[in-house]
């Protein structure tokens, strides 16, 4: 005890009353800094006391200003976190002997950036009317969402050992029985209309919160999406951001062969949306895109995230088999060792 | 019984109009009351509402799936939402949104099916909703309410606004007289209203068919047959206490509804009675499983014996 541990990183925030909190992952203890400090755009070096011999790698860095729960992490931290999330996704899919492996791996970097950089939401603020809303329209990739929610402290991670088991709330699609889930989803084409309703409510209430929804490219032929896209533009919902996880594969075949939605950017533009395309696995590019919302004042924004189904595990990448394939023992070990290696690379 | 046989009930209005008036009075004091419409504010009698409270009406265009999804999102953000659209489209095209986004996600939306049943008459089956009770009865976590007269409609609308769970409200276009002289009985979802009393038979009806049922009771009374008529305004949860009591004290039970004979009020009652050993002569009056005859709502009612004579004949047949 009492070994001051210097921590460093970079980030941004507003106001004079920002708080810096260190969570020791091993104990989930939360320690306040020794004194308040001012935050604007900055590089920080802070000394805080940790209750045990934690190393930097064991710590989560969060900066929360007293108003908004802004959450900021450094680049390396997020990259390592993506690898860790991927390992956990596979672990719990193997445990459940079910899950949407490929899609969870394609969207996990987006979820990582959302929950660790963008969304103003936490277990403590989840019932606040001012929280940001995230609705996962591609509900089948629930494993990615559950792993991130557990990491953010919405529920103990060991709950995921019950995934898809008898009477578990942790089932194959998001439900509000799980803390952190905004809406029950699973049938495709439902997230965007609900998000539009949330965003209209925010405008009516003159609230600042933002609404995000993650869609798969395979679900875009659902007509309800385009009904909602029209409404979003009609009501000038620049507090709304849709993200398309464009991994280009769906259960039957490549999306372009099942029902081609390209050129996708032009479709969204024609519906009155402001569009940005990013590499959906590039943490910095994702951060930059989210940081520049809304892309145009008075318009809803869509991020078309170009992703790879099964990303992070070589033999799963771009392979239809892994839409909802569950790895066997050997495949699991191989996947985990690949991910361990990328963790080492991320740490460099 | 006042005004029961009035064919031109001066002073009475279509239930849809009453709904709109009550919604306006609620909106006057509660900014969270929101009507969501799908180019349906005219038929929903919501034009005055929209003029008076332009910030409290959300128009999504002719897009029922979106209507219900947006309504769910508004409700999730704390709004008291009435999603208004013709029942035929609302409960068919947007059934999955009602099932998932409203009922399963437990977003307290009042889904309002207007011009229901065969209200649209000669516009044909595309515009009829004869399936909505059946579809919604099979969906968990939604209360299904079919008010009969203006009083029930006003009460149901106000109650729906206070209810923090999904509700389906369903009514038609016809001018509806009042069923009872004194509307001093408490209106509660899940508790049927007894309109006339008698122990020979029970007629359990809902919505716009309660009227011919009450008229049938009058016809029968003139012939010495005394029947209880119930406005069973809540199809789910069904008032099984009242149903069981009536089945025990009456010699026959007849149900009447502006809905398919499959899966509606009649089958809900039959199921309960059968499973609880209450075996009385029983008949369901409704729209049979066939291409619905063409014509006005009244033509269709007449064709399928949803009339005072038709209902009275069935009662006599069972006794």
Description of the structure:
The complex is a heterodimer of chains A (348) and B (319). Chain A is an alpha/beta fold and 348 residues long. Chain A has two domains: 3-64; 79-306, 3-Layer(aba) Sandwich (Rossmann fold), CATH 3.40.50.970. Helices cover 33% and strands 18% of the residues of chain A. Chain A is built from nine helices and ten strands. In chain A, the strands form three sheets. Chain A has a five-stranded parallel sheet, with helices on both faces. Chain A has a three-stranded antiparallel sheet with strand order 3-2-5, with no helix packed on it. In chain A, strand 2 (19-24) and strand 3 form a beta hairpin. The longest helix of chain A is centred in the N-terminal third of the chain and has 22 residues, at 75-96. Chain A starts with a strand and ends with a helix. Chain B has 319 residues and is α/β, with parallel strands linked by helices. Chain B folds into two domains: 13-176, Thiamin diphosphate (ThDP)-binding fold, Pyr/PP domains (Rossmann fold), CATH 3.40.50; 193-318, Rossmann fold (3-Layer(aba) Sandwich), CATH 3.40.50.920. Chain B has helices at residues 15-29, 47-52, 64-76, 87-90, 95-104, 132-137, 150-162, 210-222, 240-249, 265-275, 297-303, 308-318, and strands at residues 13-14, 33-37, 57-59, 80-86, 109-114, 143-145, 167-170, 175-176, 193-196, 201-205, 227-231, 234-236, 252-260, 282-287. In chain B, the strands form three sheets. Chain B has a seven-stranded mixed sheet, sandwiched between helices. A five-stranded mixed sheet of chain B has the order 9-11-10-13-14, with helices on both faces. Chain B is globular and about 55 Å long. Chain B starts with 12 loop residues before the first strand and ends with a helix. Mean pLDDT of chain B is 95; it is low at 1-9. The chains are: A alpha/beta (348), B alpha/beta (319). Chains A and B meet through helix 4 and helix 5 of A and helix 3 and helix 5 of B.
